[in-house]
C-alpha cells in the first residue's frame, strides 16, 4: 500500500484493537478534528493514495490528546483494508468533523437503540444525552453474542441497558423492536427514540413508534463522496424533499425518511464493490496453492 | 492546433490538444500586427501583456515570454488551455475582423509548456518578509492566484483545501483530457517553492471557523475563495433514481478520484460501457461530463440542452471537440421527468421540445416548451449540469459575513472587502459560477486589496 501521499505524516493510528470479529476500534491522531467534534458528527477517511473516500462516525474524541476514535465494520474492500491496519500506520486522509451534531438537550426519557455496529454510532450521542440530564434507556441488538459491542460503555451511561440477540445466544432472544414495544407497553412516557443500525432495523423502529407519534431520530448512511455538500451523491428523500445527508444530516426524523429510496441508492455500486472486495481478498491472501476465484469466474480479466 | 484524432481520443483520457511546435508557434506569432493600442490586453481579465510576450516568442526568448505572462497570470499552462479566449483576448484581436484572430491561447500554452518541459521556471523574487499572515480558504483558481501575488509581497500565506488535492475545480472538475493534472501539480509545486503553504483536508466552517483563524490562529486577513460548489438539480420527478448524477459528483468521481482507472483506484463510477448516456446542460461542465462518459465507453452520448447551439455557454472548441468525438446534440430539448425500473434504476427520460421566445434577464431568448411534443429518450445514466451555487459552510458559521439572496458573499466591487473586518471574498463564491480566468482576476484584485489593508489597517 502506498503511504506516499503528502498527508501521510498527519493521520497516524495510535491505537487499534478488535471489539468483535471484523469490528475494530481505532484511535487516530487528528488534532483539528478532535478539538471541534461533537456527538453525531462523522469523518471522511481515505486509507491510501488510490483509496476511495468513505464516511465513518466519530465514536469519541480527546481534544487534549488530539485524537479521535472510530469503529469500523469490515464489509467492503476499504473497510476490510482499514481493519488490516494497526497502530503506527498512517491514513492518507481524515476530514471532518462533518455533518450536523446531534441535537442534545433535556428531552426527558430517551430510548437509544443501537443495532450491530450502529451501537458505535449511537454511543456518543447517548452519552451526551445522559450528560444533558435525560433518562437513557438503551437497547443494544446484535445478530449473535460475539457481535455485541460496547456493552460496558453503554451500561455506564444508561439508566437501563437491554440487550437482544437474534439467535438468543446472549441476553434476550429477539429484535430490538420487540424490546422497544415492551418498553412502550409499560406505560412509561417516551419523549425521544434514537435508532441507529442497519436500514431494515431503522425502518422497523420508525414503524413501531409511528402510531404513537413518538419523535424518532435515525442516522443515515448513504453513499457519499466529498462530505461537504458539493456532489449531492448522498441525497435522501425526507418528507418528499431532497436533503444532503452530509450537510443537512446525517440525523433525520425517521417518520419522514424514504427508506426504500435509500436502500435502492445504496445498492448502486454493488457489483463493483463485490469486484473490489474479491480482488482485495485475492491479493491479501496469496499462497502457493491459491487460485483466484475472480480470475476463474472471469478469465477475460487476466488478459489485460 | 494539432490534436489527437477523434476516433482515438474518444476512448482515452490523454490530452486532446497536442500543442504547437516551434515552427507553428513562430508562424502564428508572425501574424501579430503589434497594434499600438492592443485590444487583446484589454480583453484579458488579468491583463496579460499579450503584445510583449508575442514579441519575445518572435525573438526566440520563450522563457522570458513565459515570465512576462507570469507577471499577471500565475497559471499560464492552465489558462492557455481553459480560458474562453474567443470572448476575451482573441475576441478583441483586430485580425478577427477579417481573418481568424491570433491564436493567443495556443501561444500562451506553448511558452508555458516550453518552460515546464525544460524545467527552467523562473520564479519571481519575493519582497522581504512583512510578518503578516494570510489564510486563503479554497485552493481553486481564485485562491491560487491571490496566494501567488501575496507571497511575492512578502506576506506569509497558507491555503486551506477541503479535498485531498490542491487545485479545486482544476482537479475535481476539469478532466485530464483537457487539463492534465500533472500540469496543475507542477504549478502548485512552483507556488510551494515560492513559499506558499498548503493544508489539505480542512473544511473551513467545520474543521475550523473563520473567527478561529483570525483570533486563535492569528491570521491578519482571510480570503474566502470557496467557489460555487453546490450543485443544482432540476427538481423534476425521478432525480433520486440510480444512474442520475450531478455533474459535480460524476466529475469528482472521474477526475479527483480517478474512477476511470477503477479498480486500480478504489472509487467506482457508473459503468457506461454500451450504455445510453445524456448530460443536461450546455456549458463547459456539460461538455466535460459528456466527453468523460464517451471515454468510459458510452454507446450513445446525448447533450440535452433547452436552448439552441448558439446560446450554449461552453467554449467553441469544446463544442467542436464534443461533436467530432460523436456527442449527439439534442438542442431545444428539456427533460421533464426521469423514469425508472422496479429496482430504482433510470431507464428513460421524458423530454419536451422547446422553442425560443422573447429574450430573458440574461439577454438570451427564453426557451418555451412546445405543447404536445413530449417523447421518451431511453437512458441508463443522466448527468445534470444545470449550474451551481455557493457552498454555504463558511457563511453559515460566520454570522457577521453578509450574503445576498442567492447565498453568495457580498464583497465591495473594487476591494472585495466583505462585511467582516479582515475578511475578503473572491471568485465564484461572490459572482456565482464563472470561468477560471475571471476567478483568477478576482484573486489578483483581492491580493492588491489585502496587501493594502495589511499595510494601512484601514477597513
Can you put this structure into words, describing what you see?
The complex is a heterodimer of chains A (304) and B (459). Chain A has 304 residues and is of the alpha/beta class. Chain A is built from 10 helices and 16 strands. Residues 1-8 of chain A have low confidence and may be disordered. Chain B contains 18 helices and 16 strands. Chain B has helices at residues 6-9, 22-29, 39-43, 50-58, 62-70, 76-82, 89-92, 104-118, 141-152, 169-172, 181-194, 210-215, 247-256, 284-295, 316-325, 393-396, 428-431, 436-456; strands at 133-137, 156-160, 197-199, 221-224, 230-231, 244-246, 276-280, 300-304, 328-330, 333-340, 346-359, 365-369, 375-378, 381-384, 388-389, 423-425. In chain B, helix 2 runs antiparallel to helix 8 (104-118), helix 4 (50-58) runs antiparallel to helix 5 and helix 6 (76-82) runs antiparallel to helix 8 (104-118). Chain B is globular and about 65 Å long. Chains A and B meet through helix 1, strand 7, helix 8 and helix 9 of A and strand 5 and helix 13 of B.
Global mean pLDDT of chain B:
93
Query: Uncertain spans of chain B, ≥5 residues at pLDDT below 50?
Result: none
Name the biggest interface.
Answer: A-B, 47 and 40 residues
Radius of gyration of chain A: 20 Å
How widely separated are the two ends of chain B?
A: 48 Å
The largest sheet of chain A has its strands arranged as: 6-1-2-5-4-3-7
Amino acid at each position: 500500500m502506498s503511504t506516499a501521499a503528502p498527508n501521510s505524516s498527519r493521520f497516524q493510528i495510535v491505537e487499534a484493537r478488535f471489539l468483535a470479529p471484523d469490528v475494530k476500534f481505532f484511535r487516530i491522531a487528528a488534532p483539528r478534528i478532535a478539538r471541534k467534534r461533537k456527538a453525531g458528527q462523522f469523518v471522511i477517511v481515505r486509507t491510501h493514495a488510490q483509496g476511495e473516500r468513505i464516511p465513518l462516525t466519530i465514536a469519541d474524541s480527546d481534544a487534549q490528546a488530539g485524537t479521535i476514535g472510530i469503529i469500523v465494520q469490515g464489509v467492503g474492500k476499504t473497510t476490510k483494508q482499514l481493519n488490516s491496519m494497526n497502530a503506527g500506520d498512517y491514513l492518507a486522509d481524515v476530514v471532518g468533523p462533518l455533518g450536523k451534531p446531534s441535537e442534545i438537550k433535556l428531552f426527558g426519557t430517551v430510548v437509544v437503540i443501537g443495532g450491530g455496529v450502529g451501537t458505535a454510532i449511537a454511543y456518543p450521542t447517548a452519552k451526551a444525552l445522559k450528560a444533558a440530564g435525560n433518562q437513557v434507556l438503551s437497547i443494544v441488538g446484535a445478530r449473535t453474542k460475539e457481535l455485541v459491542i460496547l456493552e460496558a460503555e453503554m451500561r455506564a451511561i444508561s439508566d437501563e441497558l437491554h440487550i437482544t440477540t437474534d439467535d438468543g445466544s446472549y441476553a434476550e432472544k429477539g429484535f430490538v423492536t420487540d424490546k422497544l414495544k415492551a418498553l412502550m407497553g409499560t406505560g412509561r412516557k417516551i419523549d425521544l427514540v434514537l435508532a441507529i443500525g442497519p436500514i431494515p432495523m431503522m425502518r422497523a423502529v420508525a414503524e413501531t413508534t409511528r402510531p404513537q407519534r413518538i419523535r424518532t431520530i435515525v442516522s443515515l448512511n448513504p453513499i457519499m463522496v466529498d462530505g461537504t455538500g458539493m456532489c449531492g451523491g448522498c441525497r435522501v428523500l425526507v418528507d418528499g424533499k431532497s436533503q444532503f445527508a452530509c450537510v443537512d444530516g446525517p440525523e433525520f426524523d425517521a417518520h419522514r425518511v424514504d427508506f426504500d429510496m435509500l436502500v435502492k441508492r445504496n445498492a448502486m455500486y454493488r457489483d463493483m464493490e463485490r469486484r473490489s472486495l474479491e480482488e482485495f481478498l485475492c491479493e491479501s491472501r496469496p499462497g502457493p496453492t491459491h487460485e483466484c476465484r475472480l480470475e476463474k469466474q472471469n478469465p477475460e480479466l487476466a488478459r489485460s | 492546433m494539432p490534436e489527437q484524432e477523434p476516433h482515438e481520443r474518444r476512448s482515452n483520457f490523454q490530452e486532446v490538444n497536442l500543442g504547437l511546435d516551434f515552427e507553428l508557434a513562430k508562424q502564428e506569432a508572425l501574424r501579430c500586427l503589434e497594434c499600438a493600442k492592443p485590444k487583446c490586453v484589454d480583453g484579458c481579465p488579468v491583463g496579460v501583456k499579450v503584445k510583449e510576450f508575442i514579441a519575445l516568442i518572435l525573438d526566440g526568448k520563450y522563457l522570458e515570454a513565459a515570465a512576462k505572462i507570469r507577471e499577471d497570470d500565475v497559471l499560464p499552462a492552465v489558462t492557455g488551455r481553459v480560458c474562453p479566449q474567443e470572448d476575451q483576448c482573441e475576441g478583441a484581436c483586430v485580425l478577427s475582423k477579417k481573418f481568424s484572430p491570433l491564436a493567443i491561447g495556443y501561444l500562451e500554452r506553448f511558452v508555458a509548456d516550453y518552460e515546464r518541459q525544460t524545467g527552467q521556471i523562473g520564479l519571481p523574487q519575493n519582497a522581504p518578509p512583512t510578518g503578516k499572515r494570510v489564510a486563503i480558504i479554497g485552493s481553486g483558481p481564485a485562491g491560487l492566484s491571490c496566494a501567488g501575488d501575496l507571497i511575492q509581497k512578502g506576506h506569509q500565506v497558507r491555503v486551506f483545501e477541503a479535498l485531498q488535492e490542491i487545485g479545486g475545480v482544476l482537479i475535481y472538475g476539469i478532466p485530464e483530457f483537457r487539463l492534465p493534472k500533472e500540469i496543475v501539480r507542477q504549478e502548485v509545486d512552483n507556488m510551494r517553492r515560492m513559499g506558499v503553504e498548503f493544508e489539505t483536508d480542512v473544511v473551513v466552517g467545520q474543521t475550523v471557523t473563520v473567527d478561529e483563524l483570525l483570533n486563535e490562529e492569528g491570521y491578519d486577513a482571510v480570503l474566502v475563495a470557496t467557489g460555487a460548489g453546490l450543485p443544482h438539480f432540476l427538481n423534476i420527478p425521478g432525480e433520486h433514481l440510480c444512474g442520475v448524477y450531478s455533474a459535480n459528483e460524476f466529475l469528482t468521481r472521474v477526475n479527483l478520484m480517478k474512477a476511470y482507472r477503477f479498480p486500480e483506484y478504489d472509487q467506482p463510477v457508473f459503468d457506461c460501457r454500451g450504455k445510453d448516456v445524456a448530460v443536461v446542460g450546455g456549458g463547459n461542465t456539460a461538455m466535460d461530463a459528456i466527453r468523460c462518459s464517451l471515454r468510459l465507453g458510452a454507446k450513445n452520448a446525448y447533450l440535452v440542452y433547452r436552448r439552441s447551439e448558439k446560446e450554449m455557454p461552453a467554449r467553441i472548441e469544446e463544442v467542436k471537440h464534443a461533436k467530432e468525438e460523436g456527442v449527439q446534440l439534442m438542442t431545444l430539448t428539456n427533460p421533464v421527468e426521469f423514469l425508472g425500473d422496479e429496482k430504482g434504476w433510470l431507464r428513460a427520460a421524458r423530454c419536451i421540445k422547446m422553442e425560443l421566445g422573447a429574450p430573458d434577464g440574461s439577454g438570451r431568448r427564453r426557451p418555451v416548451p412546445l405543447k404536445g411534443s413530449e417523447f421518451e429518450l431511453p437512458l441508463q445514466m443522466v448527468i445534470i449540469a444545470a449550474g451551481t451555487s455557493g457552498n454555504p459552510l463558511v457563511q453559515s458559521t460566520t454570522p457577521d459575513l453578509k450574503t445576498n439572496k442567492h447565498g453568495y458573499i457580498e464583497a465591495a466591487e473594487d476591494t472585495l472587502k466583505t462585511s467582516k473586518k479582515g475578511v475578503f471574498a473572491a471568485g465564484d463564491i461572490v459572482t456565482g459560477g464563472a470561468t477560471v480566468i475571471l476567478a483568477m482576476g478576482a484573486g489578483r484584485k483581492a491580493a492588491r486589496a489585502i496587501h493594502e489593508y495589511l499595510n494601512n489597517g484601514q477597513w
